[in-house]
Amino acid sequence: MKREKSAKNYYFLETLKRLEKGVNARIGTIILIVLVFCCVFAPLVAPYGQNDMDLTAMCQGPSLKHLCGTDNLGRDIFSRLLYGGRFSLALGLASSVFGMVLSVILGSIAGYFGGKVENIIMRLMDIWASLPGILLCILISTAFGAGFFNTILALSVSTLPGGVRTTRAQILKERSMEYLEAAESINCSKVKIMFGHLLPNVFSPMLVGCTMGIGNNIMMAATLSYIGLGVQPPTPEWGAMLADARSYILVYPHMIIWPGIFIALTVFAINLLGDALRDALDPKLRS
């Protein structure tokens, strides 16, 4: 037991060392830390409230008083970006984690038990995957209604096919290993074998997929909010801010440029970190 714990600790520390050496990981981590810190502590960082209006300063460009300018209602865009980052980051993280949990459960059942169970699950995933992800999100959001939690549900469900296939492929690769035969020989239950022995050995690809999925889900959430099916006004979610500013894109471009920059910067940082994490967890690169 002690050897197993020491091996896990060594693996974890080695992964951290590999991440520290990577330039991409450093850049992505720094950008994310700054963004998350500013968004979490928005009441302390933001110069104005998220819905504070100044009717004498509507549609103003960037200035020392308003770093990113103001919108059509005189609200400070920089403050709304910081408050809105809470919702955008929470949507991306929550939907990725929830989707990963569902994918791991279904993929593990399909890969370990095989037979009819596997055929049923995988054929359902094939049908699911035949629908474009954004179309599936739109259908779910339309059926259940717009809102924060319904958006999380829509984003999570739309990512299931890829996650289930990845988990199943990893389980099939590990299913014939000797340590599983040893576990079965001492009458370990199937649930314990699946979640206690198999999943820890196939967790790395799922972690990388979950990390990379956060950025994609943030963009999908922004898309849903842009077409009116995501987080609803006056909540300052980045996609909703883009939707509010689309009518002013030609006359007041700063209203739509800054939310786009924040979305792009966040997705860029998450993708950098995901690439670095994939390289750090790759067994082929380990000595």
Describe the overall structure:
This protein is mostly helical and 287 residues long. It has twelve helices and no strands. The chain has helices at 2-21, 23-40, 42-45, 77-113, 115-129, 133-144, 148-158, 160-174, 178-185, 190-226, 238-245, 254-281. Helix 8 (160-174) runs antiparallel to helix 10. The two termini are 24 Å apart.
Chart the SSEs and their pairings:
Layout: H1 2-21, H2 23-40, H3 42-45, H4 77-113, H5 115-129, H6 133-144, H7 148-158, H8 160-174, H9 178-185, H10 190-226, H11 238-245, H12 254-281
Q: What would the keywords be for this entry?
A:
disordered N terminus; mainly alpha; 287 residues; 12 helices
Mean pLDDT across every amino acid position: 83
- Figure out the total of helices: 12
Provide the β-strand percentage band: under 5%
- What ranges have pLDDT less than 50 throughout 5 or more consecutive residues? 1-5
What is the helical fraction, as a range of percent?
over 70%
> Sheet with the most strands?
none
Order of helices and strands: HHHHHHHHHHHH
Basic shape: elongated
The SS-based structural class is mainly alpha
**What's the total count of β strands?**
0
What gap, in angstroms, lies between the N and C termini? 24 Å
Query: Over all CA atoms, what is the radius of gyration?
Result: 22 Å
